[in-house]
Each structure stands twice: as structure tokens, then as C-alpha cells.
Amino acid sequence: MHICVVGTHQYQWALWPFAGLFQKYWGPGTVAYCGDHLAGDLPPNLEFVQVPAYRMGEWPWQHWFGNGLRSYLETVDDPIVAMFLPDHWIKDPVDGGLVLALHDYMLAHGDVVRGNLTAGTALEQHGQVVDEWEGTEIISVSPTDPHASIDGGMTFCPSLWNRELLIDLLEPSWNLWDCEILGTRKVAELGLRSVGTRPPALRRVHGLSHLQPKVVFLNGLRGEDWALVRRHLPDGWRVEG
Questions:
Q1: 88 vs 83: CA distance, rounded Å
Q2: Domain 2-240 has CATH 3.40.1000
Q3: Whole-number Å distance between alpha carbons of 62 and 60
Q4: How many angstroms separate the Cα of 186 from the Cα of each of 12, 159, 180, 235?
Q5: Are 36 and 54 in contact (CB under 8 A)?
Q6: How is the chain split into domains, by residue range?
Q7: Angstrom distance (rounded) from CA 214 to CA 163
Q8: SS3 at position 216
Q9: What is the reported pTM?
Q10: Ramachandran assignment for 50, one of left (phi > 0), alpha (psi -120 to 50 degrees), beta (any other)
Q11: pLDDT tens column, 76-100
């Protein structure tokens, strides 16, 4: 299974707490960082891959997320990709058995585009049990459900993705929000599914918000993990929670 974190150089500082908490709660191993260019050193368990669709330092994130992400996925061999954003900071030990069960379920069911790993989503709250796999309850929310466009459809909270299906779904002109909103509608049109496990495999803090620039949200992190984020906080940023 390929594991990647997707972001731009503006938020490269967030990769340091991401990498530390990933290693602490997920385990050892190298994570690919797909970005526009490097803005300093990376943590030792991250490996930089420049987004193929654009030249160094020129990834128009707000307008061409779909094209950039698709170009990266086309270079990956694994059929299932675990994807994170830089501010997805894991806060508790990950249940590796649930990750593996979800991974194997997706391989066996070709209509599943996304496997939700994350607690606190609408899929977790509103999903219904649709199957049992390796002793694990598989839940789903219809992509036409009003909750699906929030967290039940094509959302980029920590998830597993069917690489080929995601490549087909992404439109080159989509930004991140288009991917989630318009992508969820396309999932419904194509008869695809987004599923998860009950319980979910991991819990994370979503540290940043586009609505409040230069503010970091740390509600739910343990004291030592909170301190890890603070050590890497850039000048001019402030913490809430």
C-alpha cells in the first residue's frame, strides 16, 4: 500500500508534526510527500516527490488540484493509496488490523473508490452496516445522502483510495473543494461507493482551516504532542485549543 501526504511548500512546516505523530501512532516506514517544491529540510521518514504536471515551484493549488493529484497518482504502482494532508495529525494509536481489513475489502470490491480511515466523520455518524469483512463491520453512506458531501463522499480526510478509480474521477480543473463536492456527485453518477469500518481505524486532529489563516487548532492532542506542534510553529502563527 502506497502512503502519501499531499501539500504545497506554504505548509511544509506542518509536515514535521505530521511525520512525528505518524511514526508514533501508525508506525515506521517512509511516506511520500507530493508537493510543488521543498522549503527546507523534510523529516527523515518523508520522501519528496515533485508533482509531475507542473514545473518546480509552480503548482497552482487553488485551481489545479485535480490535475496535479492525478498526474502524481499516474506514477504510483500500488492499487490502493493511503492519502493525508499535512495537517492531519494522528492523535491515538492506529488500528492496523482495521486498515488492513479495509484495504483488502477495497481490493475485493471494485466499486469502492474510497475507504474512510477517520473518526468523527458523517460517514461514521450516519453510515449503515452494508457488509462484514474479516470480522469487521463495513459501513457506507449513499453519495446522494445529504451528509455525503460533507464527509461521506469524496472527502480528503485520511482515507484509502482506489488509485485507478480516483484518477478517472478527478477532473483537471478541479480545486480541492471541487474534488470533494463535485467528485461526490460524480461518485453517485457512476454508481461507486465510499465505505468505512466500524469502529474507524484512526483518530486525528485537523490542525488548519482555510477560514482562519495562520491559526492552528490542537483540541484533542496530548500534551507532548501539542508541544511537538508548538516546536515547529512558524513566526506569526497562533494556537487555539
A1: 10
A2: no
A3: 6
A4: 31, 18, 10, 41
A5: yes
A6: 2-240
A7: 32
A8: strand
A9: 0.94
A10: beta
A11: 999 999 999 999 999 999 999 999 9
